UniProtKB/TrEMBL annotation:
This is Uncharacterized protein.
Length: 306
């Protein structure tokens, strides 16, 4: 036997993995508890082989997790999918150590509820993981959608879970994000050339249909508010939005182009100049109008809205 090909010097104890697990899972008084790993199984997969879906059986009362270590061998595929309660996604929270307890308390329950509710009216969540990251106070937005990981301001940590609905909007972007709406619907990217040193930038080109992203997200966000709370919550959110739409339209009285839902940007024009609640509110109201024309939510949504 060629020892170099069959042996590894890897040991869990010396890898530092257990420290990471302990710091990630144990907080407060539990922080100093020791975590031990016991080798259960070594699987060696040949070409085309795979591990069938299975449920880990607890091997003792003190077992709380399975640690899967994948050795670096050349392979394709091999995605690990965690299923829980029939769902193919996991959710979690991230924050600096001093905020992690508050973050977990504020958001962990709500996130799962939001995902389950969203899947009642939308196709299944496809990203596998949905986490939120609470950033330091210098983060300049309330929330920012990133695939799998929504960024949030720490000002949402109010201790009574009254501001968690911000996550509904960011979560909805998982279905109506830049990659599936506003990029694919836009005019092609024009690269720089000798006779055109100021080409249509990718960003400018795609901002034309920005409302497909934010209008749909705002519309679905409010449907979810109705399902999570009451129809009045949805209506109230449209009312609040109307005020901000009126203000945004006033702001652009001298530049009426930016009052439009679809904006044809000129070369060199900065889409940030046009950024306002117009694509959010006008977009959501346009979709609400279509919904009402077609006979309400039951007729408009692909799935029945209970
Ligand atoms: Zn948004």
């Amino acid at each position: 036997m060629d020892r170099e090909n069959f042996m590894t010097r890897f040991t869990v104890e010396h890898s530092g993995l257990l420290d990471v697990i302990r710091q990630g899972l144990l907080t407060g008084a539990e922080e100093k508890k020791t975590v031990e790993a016991e080798l259960y199984k070594l699987n060696v997969y040949g070409e085309g082989a795979f591990f069938k879906p299975h449920l880990d059986t607890p091997r003792s009362t003190s077992m709380f997790a399975s640690l899967v270590v994948v050795f670096p061998t050349p392979h394709e595929g091999g995605e690990l999918v965690l299923r829980h309660g029939g769902k193919e996604w996991t959710s979690g929270v991230w924050a600096e150590p001093e905020l992690i307890d508050a973050t977990y308390w504020e958001f962990s329950e709500a996130i799962n509820k939001f995902l389950i509710t969203a899947e009642k009216i939308l196709p299944p969540y496809r990203f596998g993981v949905y986490d939120v990251l609470v950033l330091p106070p210098s983060f300049p937005y309330g929330g920012m959608e990133n695939a799998c990981l929504t960024f949030l301001t720490p000002t949402l940590l109010v201790g009574d879970r009254t501001l968690v609905d911000v996550v509904v909007h960011e979560l909805t972007h998982s279905w109506f994000g830049n990659g599936v709406t506003y990029v694919s619907a836009c005019i092609p990217y024009v690269p720089p050339s000798a006779d055109n040193i100021s080409p249509t930038s990718h960003r400018q080109a795609n901002s034309t249909h920005f409302w497909l992203n934010e209008g749909w997200t705002t519309y679905i966000e409010r449907v979810l508010l109705q399902l999570l709370h009451t129809p009045a919550d949805r209506g109230f959110s449209f009312l609040i939005g109307r005020t901000s739409l009126t203000n945004a339209l006033k702001q652009y009285t001298s530049r009426p182009k930016y009052q439009r839902l679809v904006i044809d940007f000129d070369v060199g024009e900065d889409p940030d100049d046009a950024y306002s609640t117009v694509p959010y509110e006008k977009g959501a109201n346009f979709l609400l109008h279509l919904e009402r024309m077609l006979g309400g939510l039951d007729a408009f949504l692909p799935d029945t809205c209970a």
